[in-house]
Design goal:
Length: 463
Amino acid sequence: MSEAVTTPTDLSPAHRSLFDKAAASVKMQNASYAVQLLLPIIKEVPSFLEGRKTLRTAAALAHSGKKKLIDTSALAVMKLKTKAAADPLGVLYDLEEILATDPFNPSANEMLFTAANAAKMEQTAAFGLEMIMKGHPSNIKNMHKLAEHYMNINDPEKAIVVFNNILKVDNSDGEARRGVTNANARQSMNKQKWEGGDGGDFRKLLKNQEQAKQLEAQNRIGATKEQMMEQLAYLGAEYEADPNNVDTSRKIGELYERLDDYASALSYFQWALQLSNGDASLETKVNKIQDRLDESTIAQLQATIDADPTADSAEAAREQLKDLQQVRIEKLVTTSRDRVERNPTDPQLRFELGINLFNAGHPTEAIPELQRAKNNPAIRNKAMLALAKCYEAKNMLDLGVRQLQEAAGEIPTLDAVKKEILYTLGNILEKMGRKEEFLDAFKQIYEVDYGYKDVATRVESSY
């Protein structure tokens, strides 16, 4: 970026003192006073971007919740058009006077973008569009303009964030999806100091088709992050040429998944699913990636709660966590039902529906699904374990014991599934007061895996 941004340490002592007072006023919620202090600084030092941002924060605080009886800002902005073309630097202050009372005004911020660009102030220009995005988060046209600007000034990291915001509003936006791919590839090029990138024609960066094939082969057997980013660059060119190619979208999604960028992976898998007219494997992938994103959000909320359980933020996190978990369970049940309706003879789908129904608190509905699923040898033991838990939830303990004993007898080695079966069996037997049988189930685990859950403590305390 060529813009020479002024920092607080670059200010004159007088301006620095005013800025410090303004920043303190914002913290003390005296926002109107901060606006008065900052306007003259921005007028005299237009390259002071941090001051411009602080001014906008103060303006937003000062006018939060207020509605103008008569909005004359559109007329005021129109009057500045001629001046903006002749004196782009000078018009920036005029716009700040408008934005001081209407910080998210789209027309004023867009003119700020245009004028700052003309004055070769790329970061200030970006700030104008950022404010529109903040105040009008569903304005896709503005976000595309901002993302394109970031790419033009070679800031692909910020472009990726904006493209992903677009996809949150409209997941079918193919241009945004291509933008994510191109921006990721550009980011990789910047890190490796490649030359010749023009922001879109990534095929030229690869020596030939043979190199692309080698990259794809590397990805099948294991590749470094840099190699996967190279492959993304190649696939970005493929996607640009044909965005409706299911295989290309699938490959891009797989690469993002391996790079742990699950939000980007989800957008490509969802697009591939849409193109495929309901491919079962892609539907499974979409559900798994979405579930992983939900798990990440749940983990973040739980971390907030664990950090300080008595804080207000923890209480808010608990409420959000409860809502998210409920929505997640309901979504899983709905998705599972839909898949079973489309493939009623698939036992794996029956099993998944049964598990989701049980987790949602519907053991009665889960039982017939799991009974059908256990007829498949590949998932029989897991289905019987789940059935036993359903019977336990309904206090039909003898039926639960019968399922677990049968399942345990069919597994010759003490693998992870059999350990869980025996552990569940022990707990149910203990509820039934059958102490010797309960201990026998736990001892089978104890003799092989001393550290399994609380088995050691419960076995040893019985002596």
